[in-house]
Amino acid sequence: MPETTTMTQQQLDQLCINTIRTLSMDAVQKANSGHPGTPMGMAGIGYALWTQRLKHNPGNPLWPDRDRFVLSMGHASMLLYSLLYLTGYKVTLDDIKDFRQWESITPGHPEAKLTPGVETTTGPLGQGFGNGVGMAIAEAFLAQQFNRPGHTIVDHHIYAFCSDGDIMEGVASEAASLAGHLKLNKLIYFYDQNQISIDGDTAKTFTEDVGKRFESYDWHVQHIDGMDHTQVGPAIERAQKETGKPSLIISPTHIGYPSPNKQDTASAHGSPLGEDEVRLTKEKLDWPADEQFRIPAEALVVFRECQERGNQWEREWNEKFDAYRKEHPELAAQFERQMKGELPDGWDRDLPEFDPNDDPLATRKAGKKILGTIAKTVPNLIGGSADLVSSTGTEFPDSGSFSADDRSGRNIHFGVREHAMGSLGNGMAAHGGIIPMGSTFLIFSDYQRPTIRLAALSHFQNIFVYTHDSVGLGEDGPTHQPIEHMASLRAIPNLVTLRPADPNETTYAWKVAMERTDGPTAMALTRQGVPILDRSRYAPAEGTLRGAYVLSDADEAKAIIIATGSEVSVALAAQDALAQETIPVRVVSMPSWELFAVQDPSYRDEVLPPSITARVSVEAASTFGWERWVGQYGKKVGIDRFGASAPGKMVLTELGINTDTVVQQVKSLL
């Protein structure tokens, strides 16, 4: 047995802290790549939080009422990996030695669903900050949804470590502003104010008073010495007692501490210390200078105490939940279903069907009706818009607004904060129990690309609803008319995009989004009305589920017109015009490239026979990428310039998105 009795508590604490420092240094040095400085400077804060305050169970990283931890400065990943290994998660010392290597579970920046104990993917600065705010919304909503007198089954905090870079990023400011407004008091962030970035001292660019800024956001702000781990616990206690505000604990540290030559320098931020400097640093720590990956037995005993504490916390929670289940069996079953990411039985039984005899209807308006129906059967679908709910139609009827005074409301008013909206949605998805949805105009997906990409990388179910999907929106002009955006979204791996042709395809687009749990879904919906296609004449809209389908066929078709969204009606009109000239043409509706691409090759060949090389694509957007489907001999009807300010129908006509253009292109191929 290790002789821990010969050490004072202070000495033992210091041994544990230095274990984090040396383990991080060694892993970065072995990889010859990484960021050692922040793990070295924040080792004390990490040790104090993870071993003394964080409610977690290394044996079960996913138990529902654990505290959530976000390392927003993902470049400091070795701090997190060290804590995961030392406290007993399924991260081995070999994994630490494999830092940043091929197929390792310790990649350069933390990735959700890859490493046990990593809650969310971080690296692009500010994203983790926003994710934590989303997690706090999820915790508050679920607590209101399920806690009952005498039965508190949802009660945990969200902790995050943030860097100077995180605090500089605009997405963090957006998220912080909303968090303060919503009084998300379960949010406790440590700001590692080491004042060093890649380019050197942050005084070059960043001299604001961050504490005052966050006080203006209505946050509870504290200042501690980040190098004194004994100040961490009391600061957390004070933060937890603040019931009306999120908390920021400003914690100045020394990056690279105690490296003799690289402490407080930019070289400790983004590069290994170097073998000589590692040796000198270990000597300063009174550590065996030439021994790598040394884990003192005394320190490991302290860290591994987290396992039994975690088991005890989970056992106590399970006992609470068993009592809850006896008194509230239906709520308990619903809670378990939501935390597993499952939909209620029959959730889609009453999805609306739209009558072709009705007037043309914008797919955004159809989406509003569909969302209202889904809301009745899926109580954990929540979200809103970036100050555009009256335009996007993404409002939950018969539900209030999520606010500081009402945590039960399902309508989240994100304000004009598109970037934060996406980041918060990712945080809600990462937390579990919630299906998040956010909406804005398709043009403003530009503001969300980082969060969409991270949702896809993280396999988060985050639903992005985009309306005003083309130049057909009209008079607002080219600043609001998306051109390249569909191509841009389609370029993101693991994102499914859908541009439905009519209201009934929109119903199935929503079905895809609700049932797709391994990644995000984006819908592009029209502002202008589109005809409701007569399914007694055309193929069922259920074909949407396969990404593309033969909407209208012709005997011995000589050409294929492939269209998406509002241009499907243009394609059908062109088919009729060509039929009058005895030119038989097949029309394929292709609402989703991604869904079609993963279909069996035999189905794809059935829809797009290789023998028919005369193909024309029609989409009121950039033609980039359409050669994938029309082939080397095909033609592309689209818009490869910016739009114009005029009535929508006129803009579409003037830019060649009309029946005559499609007919001419088909004829040119024949």
Topology:
Blueprint: H1 9-31, H2 37-41, H3 43-53, E1 68-71, H4 77-87, H5 93-97, H6 127-146, E2 158-163, H7 164-168, H8 170-182, E3 187-192, E4 196-197, E5 200-201, H9 210-216, E6 220-223, H10 232-241, E7 247-251, H11 267-270, H12 275-284, H13 297-327, H14 329-340, H15 363-377, E8 381-385, H16 389-392, E9 411-413, H17 418-431, E10 435-441, H18 449-458, E11 463-467, H19 485-490, E12 496-498, H20 503-515, E13 521-524, E14 549-552, E15 559-563, H21 567-579, E16 585-589, H22 593-597, H23 601-607, E17 615-618, H24 627-630, E18 635-637, H25 648-654, H26 659-669
Parallel strand pairs: 1-2, 2-3, 3-7, 6-7, 8-9, 8-10, 10-11, 11-13, 12-13, 15-16, 15-17, 17-18
Antiparallel strand pairs: 4-5, 14-16
Helix pairs in contact: 1-3, 1-4, 1-13, 3-4, 6-8, 6-17, 8-17, 13-14, 15-20, 17-18, 21-26
